[in-house]
Design brief:
It contains 16 helices and three strands. Helix 3 packs across helix 6, helix 5 runs antiparallel to helix 6 and helix 7 crosses helix 8. By secondary structure, the chain is an all-alpha fold. It has a three-stranded antiparallel beta sheet. Helix content is 58%, strand content 3%. The protein has two domains: 227 residues, Citrate Synthase, domain 1 (Orthogonal Bundle); 107 residues, Orthogonal Bundle (Cytochrome p450-Terp, domain 2). A hairpin with a 4-residue loop joins strand 1 and strand 2. The protein binds acetyl coenzyme *A and oxaloacetate ion. Acetyl coenzyme *A binds next to loops. Keywords: Transferase, Tricarboxylic acid cycle.
Length: 379
């Protein structure tokens, strides 16, 4: 019989399975992908290399990387069936709904959809990795009333993503900050969306169903939707490009004090596992700093610092990865609602790695509940 003392609301602190994909260590404030510190990978590796590492467990050889990059470049075009499905959706629906629909359509049209052999699963993971940027770019452009832009095979993943979205070659600093965000967002053990993907996989359902479900879990502002929510906070405080860093910081501090006095949750702060700072924030904050420098937007740093300092002073709660990622994507020119689909593009790697791991040593995920409704009664 389950007792109330055994209930772990939100599964907090519950270890449900092994994983060899990543190690989140809140004590040392570190994150390893297959044993490698994420900040080292972000400093030196392409997103394509990191994807192969997460999927296979080892960094690729030069020839493996070349082969994968050629495959990725050849599979970037927007599938016409996906385009047709997106065109049926209103331009004011949430872009996460578009992403979720696109993955569902890709699954329904994939001849390997019901093949769950390791080879087929890896192939489908690579296909999704290559195909998803065109979905985001197409959706961003259609919302602005712009024509889609064809992918370019002479560009790497990050260069091409920005090319298809904005129709111009991004500056190397911008491409690099984008690459860093993709590496950092790629994987984070049993977070809510990954756990969703594993639950779906545990019923022996297919990979695209698991990714579609994971997208639904990522959308919420307590998880991936926080990167969008951070920008709404900045907008609510008010962004004034001509304001000094100090003045912006003072306004942000006052906003945070008021929000906390009203017992509001401020998105982009706090974490279920890290209680003393998110391991990825220093690397992402450094990328944001480079974007602030590149675009000459010191007032954004003021807003960032003001909120962070006031939250730390009042509650000791630290920013999570979504906090620096949101303003970074804003400076690059993405609409705020497109931020969480960017997270999808990256996390596809983590989700599909976990789907393969779950399938390889499966057990149906089905916890118990403690019933607290009425006792049995007569009709
Ligand atoms: C990439 C990612 O998905 S990272 C996570 C992104 N999500 C967010 O940024 C959403 C904002 N943050 C939060 O809601 C939480 O910190 C979570 C959901 C991420 C983790 O929460 P939990 O581990 O369940 O802790 P919980 O929500 O119970 O918070 C503990 C205490 O800190 C407070 N707290 C935690 N985060 C915040 C926050 N962002 N703003 C204000 N207070 C907060 C809670 O109100 C609570 O206070 P109380 O004990 O006085 O009631
Ligand atoms: O681990 C979590 O709970 C959320 C998170 O940071 C992520 O998914 O990247």
């Amino acid at each position: 019989m389950t007792t109330t003392e055994e209930i772990k609301k939100g599964l907090a602190g519950v270890v449900v399975d092994y994983t060899a994909i990543s190690k989140v260590n809140p004590d040392t404030n570190s994150l390893l992908y297959r044993g490698y510190p994420v900040q080292d990978l972000a400093a030196t590796k392409s997103f394509e290399e990191v994807a192969l590492l997460l999927w296979s467990g080892e960094l690729p050889s030069e020839s493996e990387l070349t082969e994968f990059c050629a495959y990725e470049r050849a599979n970037r075009s927007l599938d016409p069936r996906v385009k047709a499905a997106i065109d049926l959706l209103p331009t004011d629906c949430h872009p996460m709904d578009v992403g979720r629909t696109a993955v569902s359509v890709l699954g329904a049209n994939n001849p390997l959809a019901e093949d769950s052999s390791p080879e087929a699963e890896l192939r489908k993971a690579k296909e999704l990795f290559a195909a998803f940027p065109a979905v985001v770019a197409y959706d961003q452009r259609r919302r602005r009333g712009l024509e889609p832009i064809e992918p370019r095979e002479d560009l790497d993943y990050s260069q091409n993503f920005l090319w298809m979205t904005f129709g111009e070659e991004a500056a190397p600093e911008v491409v690099d900050a984008f690459r860093v965000s993709m590496v950092l967002y790629a994987e984070h053990s049993f977070n809510a969306s990954t756990f969703t993907a594993r639950v779906i996989t545990s019923t022996l359902s297919d990979l695209h169903s698991a990714v579609t479900g994971a997208i639904g879990a990522l959308k919420g502002p307590l998880h991936g939707g926080a990167n969008e929510a951070v920008m709404h906070t900045f907008d609510e405080i008010g962004i004034d490009k001509d304001e000094s860093r100090e003045a912006a910081a003072a306004r942000a501090k006052a906003w945070m004090e008021q929000a906390l006095a009203e017992k509001k949750k401020v998105m982009g702060f706090g974490h279920r596992v890290y209680k003393n700072g998110d391991s990825r924030v220093p690397t992402m904050k450094a990328a944001l700093d480079r974007m602030i420098e590149h675009y000459g937007r010191a007032e954004m740093l003021g807003l960032y610092d003001g909120l962070e300092a006031a939250m730390d002073e009042a509650k000791g709660i630290k920013p999570n990865l979504d906090y620096p990622a949101g303003p970074t994507y804003h400076l690059m020119g993405f609409d705020t609602e497109m931020f969480t689909p960017l997270f999808i593009a990256s996390r596809i790697v983590g989700w599909t790695s976990h789907i393969m791991e779950q399938r390889a040593a499966n057990s149906l995920i089905r916890p118990l509940s403690a019933y607290n409704g009425p006792e049995q009664r007569e009709l």
